[in-house]
Fold this protein.
Amino acid sequence: MNKEDLKDKLTPLQYKVTQEKGTERAFTGEYYQKTDEGDYNCVVCGETLFSSETKYDSGSGWPSFYDVIAQGKVKEIKDTSHGMLRTEVVCCNCNAHLGHVFPDGPKPTGMRYCINSASLDFSTRKKKS
Ligand SMILES: [Zn+2]
């Protein structure tokens, strides 16, 4: 998808976060308090990245997960911007910027995927009939 199409598809904030590595303001996102069961998909390409099962309240003001839904769903990239050494998390499928991962999460992984709501699109899991 080219830039112009993406600008039509995404809100300005979603565009800024996913395409320009922006960060939404803490405690302002759509999903940081969400506790519903379901999947969190890439807002750009729809790839399922995170599940409500590994979501937890980190108190950071951003949706936080201690694991991805499956191995290889996100790419982790060393990020030295803003004078900090951090690990950027991007969608494996479309390279959308999602957020960062920090090694201060809860068990069992000890990781905290700190993800922008603006990068995610929540979908309720369909009930098995
Ligand atoms: Zn994607």
